[in-house]
Amino acid sequence: METYQADSHRYDEMIYRRCGRSGIQLPAISLGLWHNFGSVDLFSHFIQIAHAAFDRGITHFDLANNYGPVYGSAEENFGRILQKGLGRYRDELIISTKAGYDMWPGPYGNWGSRKYLMASLDQSLKRMGLDYVDIFYSHRPDPETPVEETMGALVDIVRQGKALYVGISNYNADQTAQALKALALHRVPCLIHQSRYSMFDRQVEPELLPLLGTEGIGMIAFSPLAQGLLTDRYLNGIPADSRAARTTGYLKKDQLTDERMQQIFKLNAIAGQRGQLLAEMALAWLLRDERVSSVLIGASSISQLNTNLKALQNYSFTDEELQTIEQILK
Ligand SMILES: NC(=O)c1ccc[n+]([C@@H]2O[C@H](COP(=O)([O-])OP(=O)(O)OC[C@H]3O[C@@H](n4cnc5c(N)ncnc54)[C@H](OP(=O)(O)O)[C@@H]3O)[C@@H](O)[C@H]2O)c1
């Protein structure tokens, strides 16, 4: 393969949104490497997805220590993608990784201890061939480790220059408030909160989103397409190459209940009336809220990526559309 040369028009269309009250702007659409970039996937295919993303202004790539499968392979593969040319644009990229879930055996390869976070980030940097990541996240709260220890590790990681910013993921509103308190003692702000948020999962709306808005912390919504449910992927059954069909995927067939499918059909009809595909509308629906700094999608093809980018062409909704959507989601 020729060395990658990024498209000179890459910044022409993307919309960048400020991440809370910080100096960082994130692309309204970011790309996650949870699925589709592991050792079970085809390098020659996913490197093209990564290039297509950057060529369209997607400057933010999100990873975690255990993305794959196998664990670590998405980071290794991303390291190869960087090495094969994308890395030339390192200063144009926001690369994030995380630790908090199961990674290696024994008591120090999971959850939120200082021991785990420090060792895990060192491993991640090696796999990706990087000196630093832009954002390092505590991937989930650990009920058995004092939040001061977990946040203290993130603070020291920033002081060591191994991460530029701190993030937290999957913390509820109370846990977030505790984490912010612990970070404030060290005068290291939390840049961003990564939480699941889609039309089908709105747990963040009552408490977490308002807290993040008030505190000036960015919010990046993961699985904004509910892993593909909020697209046309499953309108005519379960395709053999879809996440729901793959044994390595986290979307289970039993999530495609009759009730869910009815909602999907109805939402699909509204998207059609708006002149959008369902995926576009589902992302647009999240982006209409300015507290959402970015929606963090996955993609198994360039055409999916291109569809999703079209969401940026229209993310305003009439009151009537919003009300109809509310009725369907009830
Ligand atoms: N912090 C956390 O705990 C956490 C947890 C989960 C995810 N995340 C982050 O969020 C990222 C995104 O999560 P996700 O992959 O679940 O996001 P998602 O965007 O909800 O789902 C992505 C999947 O939906 C399908 N899809 C995407 N665009 C499509 C389109 N236009 N038409 C039809 N199907 C389409 C594809 O599935 P097929 O494979 O079937 O084609 C794709 O792999 C992850 O990579 C990760 O970075 C974080």
Percent range for β-strand residues = 15-25%
The CATH superfamily appears as: NADP-dependent oxidoreductase domain
Which cofactor or ligand species appear? NADP nicotinamide-adenine-dinucleotide phosphate
CATH class: Alpha Beta
Termini gap:
50 Å
Share of helical residues: 25-40%
* CATH-scheme architecture: Alpha-Beta Barrel
> Major sheet: size, sense and barrel closure?
8 strands, parallel, barrel
Low-confidence stretches: none
Structural class of the helices, strands and pairings? alpha/beta
Instruction: Tell me the strand order in the biggest sheet.
Output: 3-4-5-6-7-8-9-10
The name of the CATH topology is TIM Barrel
Tally of helical runs: 10
Number of strands: 10
The overall average pLDDT, rounded, is: 97
Number of domains: 1
Order of helices and strands: EEEHEHEHEHEHEHEHHEHH
Which descriptor suits the 3D outline? globular
Question: Overview of this structure, please?
Answer:
- This protein has one domain: NADP-dependent oxidoreductase domain (TIM Barrel, Alpha-Beta Barrel), CATH 3.20.20.
- The protein is globular.
- The protein is α/β, with parallel strands linked by helices.
- It has 10 helices and 10 strands.
- Strands 3-4-5-6-7-8-9-10 form an 8-stranded parallel beta barrel, surrounded by 6 helices. Strands 1-2 form a two-stranded antiparallel sheet.
- It starts with 15 loop residues before the first strand and ends with a helix.
- Strand 3, helix 1 and strand 4 form a beta-alpha-beta unit.
- The model has no long low-confidence stretch (mean pLDDT 97).
- The chain binds NADP nicotinamide-adenine-dinucleotide phosphate.
- NADP nicotinamide-adenine-dinucleotide phosphate binds next to strand 10 and helix 9.
- The site of NADP nicotinamide-adenine-dinucleotide phosphate has 31 residues, from strand 10 and helix 9.
